[in-house]
Write a structure and sequence with these properties.
globular, binds iron/sulfur cluster, 2 helices, alpha+beta, Alpha-Beta Plaits, 3-stranded antiparallel β-sheet, 76 residues
């Protein structure tokens, strides 16, 4: 079993998933199934929705298993 953190990136955002933290409540897959996919590998498809939609969903993760950072530098 792979307990390492999973990292997914596109040009705009990097998303990390820590399986040990995931409580499997399934919010992400139920609410945004175009990105968080139960039965496909890789299970996170960052092309499945707009970046702000993905961020909004990650912020709802109850366990903190999903985290993200934007790849471009923040504008001061
Ligand atoms: S929302 Fe978070 S805790 Fe729930 S299944 Fe997705 S990654 Fe796991």
């Amino acid at each position: 079993m792979d307990n390492n953190e999973n990292v997914f990136s596109n040009s705009k955002i990097t998303v990390t998933y820590a399986p040990r933290c995931c409580t499997n409540a399934g919010f992400c897959a139920k609410q945004l199934s175009s990105v968080f996919r139960n039965s496909v590998i890789p299970w996170i498809d960052l092309e499945g929705a707009q970046t702000d939609v993905i961020i909004n969903q990650i912020n709802k993760c109850p366990s903190g298993a999903l985290k993200y950072h934007l790849n471009k530098k923040e504008v001061a």
